[in-house]
Every structure is written in structure tokens, then in C-alpha cells.
Amino acid sequence: MKKILAADGISAQGIDLLKNEFVVDVRDKISADELLEIIGEYDALMVRSASKVTAEVIERAINLKIIGRAGVGVDNIDIPAATAKGIIVINSPGGNTIAATEHTFAMMMSVSRKIPIANETMQRGEWNRKEYVGVELKGKTLGVIGLGRIGMGVAKRALAFEMNVVGYDPYVNEERASELGIKVVELEDLIKNSDFITVHMPLTPDTKNMISMNEMKKMKSNVRLINCARGGIINEDDLAQAIKEGIVAGAAIDVFVEEPIKKDHPLIGLKNVVLTPHLGASTVEAQIGVSLDVSKGILAALKGEPVLNAVNLAPVSQQVMQIISPYLNLAERLGCTICSLAEGPIKKIEVTYNGEITEVNTNLLTTAIVKGMLNPVLEKDVNYVNAPMFAKSRGIKITEVKEKEAENFHNLITVKAQAGGKTCSVKGTLFGNEGRIVEINKFRIDVDPHSRILICPHINRPGVIGTVGTMMGKHGINISSMSVGTTVIKGTSLMVLTIDNDISAEVLEEFKSLDVIFDAKLVNFYAV
Predict the structure, then answer these.
(1) What is the tens place of the pLDDT at every residue in 186-211?
(2) 210 by DSSP, 3-state: which?
(3) Would you say residue 138 has pLDDT above 80?
């Protein structure tokens, strides 16, 4: 009989579901050495966040067919190692949605009515009724940054409280949001006009420090900020300073850059600040929900049935995988690039394959492109299973074209996107086993997409490269490589810089303002 190892305190409801058909060993607390020693006995592994499923663990897991993470994040699992060994990895992306939604609203209520400090002083026998006068939610404007599952859930509850709800999400369905009573606005408008602001975005290079002192100074003086999403989206040092100076009226924070926080954290001890120790998913129901989600996935996998919520590769024959696997990383990066090039929401993607690669099933490569395109902009992790579903839900049409002839290259992948009434394109191929971008918007280039790139169409005249290099140096941004391509457009070239440092929005705008630069698009491949 197949055996399952349940570690890290998995809720009993999920375990009971599995015990009906399999042997389940429950080890709530297991050391890394113990896991290495016994993992070879098991066909499935269930973990939360405590156990680290490293490459070494996976190497010793000679019978393991599936790893289930009872929660959303899979940072404690070596996904590439599991994929290389053919082990399915699943999680529970929706299991804590209600818990996180309700905690966000509880935090907003707490900071608006000063409930924590009122309770604390009452417990000491004090009666400070006049000191803790709060504000009502009715009639106030709530700004929701990120209109995914949790953001939408918070917005619906706010509407029931008769709040005015505005939302910012560059990839939201505006018609659907409007039907729910949410007005979609630009981020700057949301920041200027909201009485409460709550963030529900993933932490990426683009959203890190998304709300810092520069944004806080544009807000209403009575604004209150809530973050139950990811630590680092709101700059914690700037928030503390803004509260001390009266720029921000209050804040409720559940997630932090470093957890647990240190005793000298700048937000500790400040008035009108509510802090909780990452409790967004900490409800009995959420823990039961994620346990049941993962248990059902393991049950299906061990029976040989299709599995939902897989975060790694769908089954592909060994022969096909040998051909397409070197292209998977390149495909995701082509998708990420086309996302940055697009002017507005993407309506259509056309993927053209040229060369010998057309002789095999390329669906997984197309899925990789879609995954790379969506990952930078969605609040949830996009994987090879759910990427097509997310694209369809956003009305993005995906088509494949195969042409045997491959001019100039052995194999070539071309991605074209229609967005904002315009078409943009990017092409890539392999040099050996290394992915290279060889064309952007008809400009012939040669770029290694290994970290982040800056794409800059510019005037073709002497001194441009020197001007760009000087400005980058001024801001301490290292250029590790540069490719300059030309096209039939006279007097125009395309410069692509591979850079080693993050670029702030202010520096990017300064870069765009150079009279020799027509535009600048930053592509962060860390999102894929």
C-alpha cells in the first residue's frame, strides 16, 4: 500500500481523507536529518512551511510522486529538482482567500476605531473614552491596489459598509469591476483621493517599495494604510517617518520585510499603528481548507488522475521533453519581454515556431510564454497548469503557427502581441543551450536575458551610447552588456542594456526624458 508522510502539523481533516485509502504517517515536528533518512519510504509528502524539501531530499525520494504544500507559497520546495525527477508539486492557492480578506477588513476596522489600544488600556483598568475617538468607514473612499481574489473580496465587503471603492490593477477586467461597483483608476489618482489604502499585489521588483515617502506625501493627511499582502510593498521606514510627521494618519500591517520583526522595528510603539504577526491565513477554516485541497490533489495523483493546482510541469513524454526543455526558460522570458513591450492590456498573442522544433508538440512552450507574460502582473503564482485559464479569463486569444523554414536560425520562436491598437514582437532562439533574444520589434539584436534588460529605441547618431552610459554611472547602475540593433527605419536604432541593478521609477523617467531616447521599457526576468 502507498505511504504518505504528513509533516508540519497538517490539519486532521485532510489526513483523515487520505487514511481511507493509504497509510499516512503523521510527523508534526521532523528534523532535516530525519526527513532525509526516511523520505525514501514514501509515495507522497505533505508539508507546510517548516520542512525544507531540498534537492538532497528529492534525490533520496526514490518513490515520491507528489509533494503537497498546504498553503500558497512553495519557497521551501526545490521546484526545479522535483520537476527534473518527475515529481508533481501542488499547493492551495485559494485556501486562505477568505481568511486573508477578513483579516484585511479587521485590520482596517481596528485602525479606524483604535480598538487594540482601547482594549489594552481597558485591561489595565483605565477608562479613556474621549482619547480613542475613531472614524467611520461609511462615505469614505477605499483604494484597493490589486484586484485579484483577495482585493476583490475586500472591495465587496467595503461596498457593504457603504464605502466608495476605487481600484488600481493594470490587468483587471474594468467591465467586471464596474458591475461590482468598483471604479478603476490610475494609481496616482487612487493615492491622492483615498481615505484608506489597502495593497493586494505580489512582491516583485516592480512592486517593491511601491508605496514610499514620495507616494505618501501625495496622500490625504487622514489616510490610513493597510498591508496584509507582502512585506516590502509599503516601505516600512518611510511609513514610520510619515506617521511621526503626521503625513499618514495610521497604518495596519500584518506582513514585514523580515519576519519575525526585531524589537527595534521602526513601527513598534507608534500611535495609530496596528501590528499583527502575519495572521492573514491563520484561521481554523483556512488551515482545514488548505489541508483538504492538498489531500484531494494527492489522492488524485496516487490514483493516476489529473491533478489541479500543480505548480510545475504537466506530464510530457520523455522524448518530447528532451527536445523542448532547453527552450522552456527562453519561452518564459520571451513572454515576460512581450508583457513589458505591450502598450496596455494584451488582447492577442500569436506564437510562431520555425525549424525542426515544429515536429513536436509545442503546447507546453506556448504555455511557458503565457506564464512568463502573466507572472509579472498577477497577484498569484502562475504555473503551467493555470496560465491558459488565466489568459482565457482575461480575454487573451492565444494562437500557434508552425512553419518548417527557419531563416538564419536552426530553430526560432516568435511572439507577437496585440495591445492598445498596436503590435509588438520579440524573437528568440538557442545558441547551444543558452537562450538569446535576437529581435525586438524588427530590430536585430543579440541579448542574453539572464536578469533584467532595458529596451531603448533612440536616435542613431554619435554620442548616444556615451550619454546613456554616463547617466547610468551617475545613478550607480552597472551595465553588464549592450546590444544595438538597426532596422529599416532610417535614423532609428534600438539599444538593449543588460543591467545589474534595480532602476527606480524616477530614474526611469529621467532616462526617458533624454532628448536622444524615444522610450524605455524595463524587463525584470526575476518575475519568471
Answers:
(1) 999 999 999 999 999 888 888 999 99
(2) coil
(3) yes
Told to judge if 259 belongs to the known catalytic residues of this protein, a careful annotator would answer: yes
Distance CA 153, CA 201 (A): 14
**C-beta separation of 332 from 323 below 8 A:** no
Largest CA distance in the chain: 83
Q: Give yes or no for a contact between 373 and 336, defined as CB atoms under 8 angstroms apart.
A: yes
Reading the block at residue 233, the C-alpha cell is: 510593498
Determine which one of 278, 394, 444, 450 is catalytic: 278
In order of 22, 118, 121, 129, the CA distances from 133 in angstroms are 57, 10, 14, 7
Dihedral sign (CA 182, 183, 184, 186): negative
- Please give the angle made by the CA atoms of 201, 203 and 205, to the nearest 5 degrees: 120
248-307 pLDDT, tens digit each: 999 999 999 998 899 999 999 999 999 999 999 889 999 899 999 999 999 988 886 667
- Residues 230, 265, 436, 458: which is the catalytic one? 230
User: Does 458 participate in catalysis according to the annotation?
Assistant: no
| Average pLDDT for 467-480 | 88
Taking residue 487's Cβ as centre, other Cβ atoms within 10 Å add up to 16
In 420-504 the beta strands, taken as DSSP E runs, fall at: 422-431, 434-440, 443-447, 452-459, 479-486, 492-499
For the entire predicted model, the pTM comes to 0.62
Q: Would you give the DSSP letter of residue 237?
A: H
Q: Is the pLDDT of residue 381 over 60?
A: no
- Report whether 275 contacts 116 (CB < 8 A): no
- The C-alpha atoms of residue 235 and residue 490 are separated, in whole angstroms, by 45
pLDDT surpassing 70 at residue 489: no
**How far is the C-alpha of 354 from the C-alpha of 121, rounded, in Å?**
71
Cell (9 digits) for 526: 526575476
Query: For residue range 114-132, what is the model confidence (pLDDT) as tens digits?
Result: 999 999 999 999 999 999 9
Element spanning 472, H or E: helix 464-474
Of 129, 175, 179, 259, the catalytic one is 259
278 is catalytic: yes
The identity of residue 97, as a single letter, is T
Query: Could you give the CA distance from residue 156 to residue 144 in angstroms, rounded to a whole number?
Result: 11
